[in-house]
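Dear support,

I submitted the protein below through the web form. The confirmation email said the job was done, but the results page showed an empty box. After a refresh the structure appeared. I'm attaching both so you can tell me whether what I see now is the final result or a partial one.
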Amino acid sequence: MINYKISLSINRLFNIHTAVLGNSGSGKSNTIARILQEVFRKENNHAYGSKVILFDSNGEYPKAFNRELNDGIHAIFYKPNVGDVDEGMVKFTLPYYLMNLDEWLAFLMASERTQKPFWDNVLQECYKFYCMFNTKEENVVKQFANYIKWKTWKILSEIIAKADSDSSKMTIAKGAIQKMKDIYELVPKEEVPSEVVDDLDNFFSVCIDLCVVYYGNNNNSLSEALPKFIKDKKNARYVRVDLIAGANAHYVTSTHRDNNGEAFEQIDEKSAMNISEEKLKSGEYFDYRFLKTAAELVLLEEEAKGNLRVREFTSTLMTRLDVFLYNAECKFMKETEYRYENEEDYLAKVFGISEESNETQLICIDSSEVGTDVLELMTSVVSRILFDYRKKQKGDNRRKHPIHLILDEAHRYIRKDTEYIMRENIFEKIAREGRKYSLFLMISSQRPSELSQTVLSQCGNYIVHRIQNEIDMNYIYSVLPYFSSDYVNKIKQAVPGEALIFGNCVPMPLMVKVEQASPDPNSKNCEIDKEWFNFSLHDKNNQN
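What the results page shows now:
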């Protein structure tokens, strides 16, 4: 029938995953905007309990929802790295410390088998450095200063255990000591007691002095001194180098440094090992500025053990780390004005998701200015946090407070190829299991053939606009067994705004004309004739 108004059941449309497919300019954005406008403008019932999170890859949707929503319907428009020109946009942050180990590995393109332990150690050391350099408690500072000495002692012990010549051993040892000094130089000296600073300075000076080589021979100066660095069960004593005695260290038996030598306090190995056993818990804060430093320490430890090619094996990882540390696209992950306690705190503060209230019904995240890798990471981490949150709900709570994720340009981060940086595609997991936890997907894509088969096949509703590419059409046909060949011509001949709807939300496949959204999303085509020919001489002179 022509001009017959079609109404879709909210339950049948929104209680299962949906795919909106079609070529560029076929009307996908308008369809999504129109559906949401209908939901948020219902006259008799207001959708206060809804939660829609829209990943807007092209910055199209704020225009469609910036006015004329029902009272009490709250929309917020986020944008990573928001600038002064982005009127109405709120700065979006995704704290790096909420990323799990697998997400770090994926973003850094690290090998899961060989580099996962390496990066896990880096994160753990980074956490320890953060604790060390960000406390004003004197005893804690001393503990971590002791920890640095212990780490250096372990590295030197590994180096001298090698069967190389003394010259090469001492060269390597000096390099390691200097790099440890560089790490130590990051300590904010103004917040560290002067005696702690002096003690570490003296420790490194002693280590350097012990690496002396006489005619290619160290005369066991370093190996004989290292056991003296560790305190016994008694109170710690102080160690210094007596150069006259052949560069061999001996005890200064006083309980304080003597004023004539560069003595340092012996290492409390038990205390250092206790600190070493402290583990970074998932979601716990640490300072990203120490990641490079922590990585350097772990590299030193691996090299001391004889893994001399470790820098070669981790070169890609370290390069990708530089992308995170120095690329402006990742700024929104590092500059967070608020320190979130955990993932639940983040969801409550940023998305308004909590068991107590639901203050925001529509969250739109404009990701138009971030690259593919960062986009994949951002969408995956947010979706994983949401999925973990929903999985924690028990009993009837699983069916309360549903969340709908709308994924614009989904082929950019739900791809079926093996180049996707996230090894385990969280959207495939949500497609398979999300319904049980009231977490639903609505995916929009102009290239169905590039979408994950798992995600597309798990959708129960399909809104298919014009598709003229045979590869895309054949892909849809292969993934959806009930997709009839009779639909092909209808889809190919559809004009912008027309779509074939089939699935749970309709009793039979229907060819429909989607009404224009008001306001419409910012997705219109350029009107070439107006831009070319309706350009007056006055306008040209004004430009000049």
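Response: this is the final, complete result; the empty box was a page-load delay. The two ends are 55 Å apart (CA to CA).
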